[in-house]
Amino acid sequence: MKNKVVLLFLGCALLGYSQNKESKNSVKIKPKAEFVAELLSKMTLDEKLGQLNLPSSGDFTTGLAKSSDISKKISEGKVGGLFNIKSVEKIREVQKLAVENSRLKIPLIFGMDVIHGYETTFPIPLGLSCTWDMNLIERSAQIAAQEASADGINWTFSPMVDISRDPRWGRISEGSGEDPYLGSQIAKAMVNGYQQHDLSKNTSILACVKHFALYGAPEAGRDYNTVDMSHIRMFNDYFPPYKAAVDAGVGSVMASFNEVDGIPATGNKWLMTDVLRKQWGFKGFVVTDFTGINEMIDHGMGDLQAASALAMNAGVEMDMVGEGFLTTLKKSIDEKKVTIERIDVAVRLILEAKYDLGLFEDPYKYCDIKRAKTDIFTSNNRIEARKIAAQSLVLLKNQNQLLPLKKSGTIALIGPLAEAEENMSGTWSVATKKGTSVTLLNGIKEVAGKSVKVLYAKGSNLDYDETFETNATMFGKTLHRDARSKEELLSEALKVANQSDIIVAALGESAEMSGESSSRTNLEIPQAQKDLLNALLKTGKPVVLVLFDGRPLVIQDENNTVPAILNVWFAGTEAGYAIADVLFGDVNPSGKLTATFPRSVGQLPIYYAHKNTGRPLSNTEGKFEKFRSNYIDERNEPLFPFGFGLSYTSFDYSNIKISSDKMNVNEKLKVTVEVTNTGNFEGKETVQLYIRDLVGSVTRPVRELKGFQKVNLKKGEKQTVTFEITVEDLKFYNTDLQFVAEPGQFDVFVGGNSNADKKVSFELTK
What pTM was estimated for this model as a whole? Predict the structure, then answer.
């Protein structure tokens, strides 16, 4: 008994606070290096391995945490953190188990998939990227951190920065599109929004950049599938956003499921140690994805002990769910397959993260019940979400200025996505509460006002196939399938349409038709909805297509027949209001695509920064040419290029100038262009600068984004936009993976999308 008392006293003295009382004020403790070293020296091997274990909570019911299966492991010091647990009450209860029942009183870290907002949900990340506004993107992450931290969460598995150039891959919805430069800017903005440059704040949370690496380039667009590419392509096209997040100080990195150079990323030492730590200087910890270690068994890397040792030796510190570290590493140490020194490094990194979060000073830092009641899903946060969502919408077509709609007359709102509250938040919106999102029907009614009569009909189900619809509406994202026949649904829709002045068709994907494990081979709108749309067009009424999606779709038919198309992604809890704000012109659309829309799925993968072949197509009309690099049945170019997006006004680019036609490595060039609002509305335009390296030691893309500015112009206003080019903008990785800028000729293009045609040129000299 006396020994137990001494141990308890030493544990409390070491941590510097009394664990028997929930501290309201932080207690000063020793500097991080000294504190962590002392704590590490007191730990048994079992306790060390416990810090590397990240099980899923299963989301405890308050009051039952002590009787759960995991409580014993927490009390024994065999758990380093938990995820998928929500609310201050539950987290406080579980934290008590760690800081009152375990020997060394080490607090837990609590993670959650806070991907695009918490209870206040913002557009899916692909939609958010289409704002091209880093301040808005950072602000969305900051609000998400404030809300999540108020509910006890201190770690998010975001941002996802995987470059994707193949929209068959469902998780393109969770990233920022196809471009490494833009993706890098967004990665930095998200990290800064979550971490706020100061993890000691109780409103900041630890970010986790994912999925390292190359997860967005699986063969055939099929999730979790093999990835195989050259190192030069990795470094030039896919690695930059991960590195940008590391440079921004991201606290953690998540390993990807796919293999890299034939070795799964979770066990890839070149990736996790040579690149991430030695080349990029990453100082945080690496966590696996869900059962990532266990899945290496199916990859063919050996049994759980072998896979766990492989991951640990590669540079992975925390095991999500699989418990391979917890159950096998002791044996691997005995067999000298893993060293205790490597274990100590891993544990130190986990403890340092907890120290940085302030959990040793106050384990209940994120358990303020007052904040939980006042800081989540606030009216101010919803106002900001509505504004940000409106900036993410992309106007793809507006024939004869059909939009904006007038706030008068009768509108027929038709389609399975018109009154689909559960789907507005999009995929990976795990904290969104049912019943809080604004539908398009409600948004239009409120924004339009009493002078507009709004008639509604569902018109069709998501798809004719009920099984497909079930698979596409998982996790509570039901569309409440209508049991009536397709003829009855269509008849009702046509009756409503014929009573209207204009038809708004709310069609496209359901929220879970994109996202994890939602790969598609057919990227068109489901046939049931295509049939509905064609019937609506035959009425002769003007039709506006409000297109919901989580990826670029193949909409060539719709583009040929529908006069106006507004791509709205899934815009979050305030989606209905934001979409209506744009439809009625209260907000002028300014979103620009961050992923190319193909003409056909057969073009995939498709992206603007492609390489030329030795036999490029010689005509610009897309005509077929034998023995040239083209299709016999389709044009080469996309339906909508990267960077594309219309406005209710129009912009003219003129008078492009460059400060000099020569530049050495120590100089800078300025490129200026005049942008004039030539339409009838005030509007925002994202001015984009692209560079082409005409001759290189390795082949170079036809153009690469190197700068952008979003400017607001009043009707008739002209503004000179200035870009600065430095040698850093001209660098790339050569065959020796050296980051170099080579002397030679460069073309510079400026305009409103990746087809920008205003050009100047210069020469880089030695």
Answer: 0.95
Residue 761's H or E segment, with its range, is strand 758-765
- The CA distance from 241 to 178, in Å, is 11
CA 487 to the chain's CA centroid: 39
Cβ neighbours for 480, distance < 8 A, ≥ 6 positions apart: none
3-state per-residue secondary structure call for 497-533: HHCCCEEEEEEECCHHHCCCCCCCCCCCCCHHHHHHH
Tell me: the pLDDT tens digits for 397-449?
999 999 999 999 999 999 999 999 999 999 999 999 999 999 999 999 999 99
Q: How do strand 662-664 and strand 285-287 relate by DSSP bridges?
A: unpaired
CA angle 117, 119, 123 (to 5 degrees): 40
pLDDT digits (tens, 9 = 90+) for 704-722: 999 999 999 999 999 999 9
Place of tokens 């050495």: 664
Q: Which two tokens stand for residue 27?
A: 């207690």
The secondary structure of 73-107 as a DSSP string is: HHHTT--SEEES--SHHHHHHHHHIIIIISSS-PP
List the catalytic residue out of 289, 362, 463, 693. Answer: 289
Give the number of other Cβ atoms within 10 Å of residue 500's Cβ.
20
Token pair 């073309």 is at which residue? 747
**Contact status, residue 59 vs residue 133, Cβ threshold 8 Å:** no
In the numeric block, which tokens belong to residue 177?
């599109």
* Max intra-chain CA distance, the chain: 90
Looking at every residue in the chain, the average pLDDT score rounds to: 95
Read off the amino acid at residue 7.
L
DSSP 108: P
Strands 452-457 and 409-414, sheet pairing: parallel
Q: Catalytic site residue 151?
A: no
Which amino acid type is present at position 29?
Answer: I
Helices 527-537, 486-498: inter-axial angle, 10-degree rounding? 30
Integer Cα distance of 637 and 642 in angstroms = 11
Please give the helix or strand (H or E) that residue 348 lies within, else none: helix 340-356
Tell me whether the omega of the peptide bond preceding residue 207 falls within 30 degrees of 0, making it cis.
no
CA distance 295 to 291: 6
413: part of which helix (H) or strand (E)? strand 409-414
Provide the pLDDT for residue 20: 36
Angle at 397 between CA 391 and CA 400, to 5 degrees: 115
Q: Is 198 helix (H, G, I), strand (E, B) or coil?
A: coil
pLDDT in tens, 310-360: 999 999 999 999 999 999 999 999 999 999 999 999 999 999 999 999 999
Task: Identify the three-state secondary structure at position 493.
Answer: helix
Both structure tokens of 467: 């099984």
Closest residue by Cα to residue 171 from 232, 243, 227: 227
β-strands 259-260, 263-264: how paired?
Answer: antiparallel
Report how far residue 159's alpha carbon sits from residue 244's, in angstroms, rounded to the nearest whole number. Answer: 11
β partners of residue 704 = 691
Query: What is the band of 59 on the pLDDT scale with cuts at 50, 70, 90?
Result: low
Mapped onto helix, strand or coil, the DSSP state of residue 758 is strand
> Cα–Cα distance between 142 and 114 in angstroms, integer?
11
Name all contacts of 370-375 with Cβ < 8 Å and 24+ positions apart: 371/88, 371/149, 371/150, 371/202, 372/87, 372/88, 372/150, 372/151, 372/152, 374/150, 375/146, 375/147, 375/150
Residue 344, phi then psi, degrees to nearest 5? -60, -40
As a residue count, the chain comes to 766
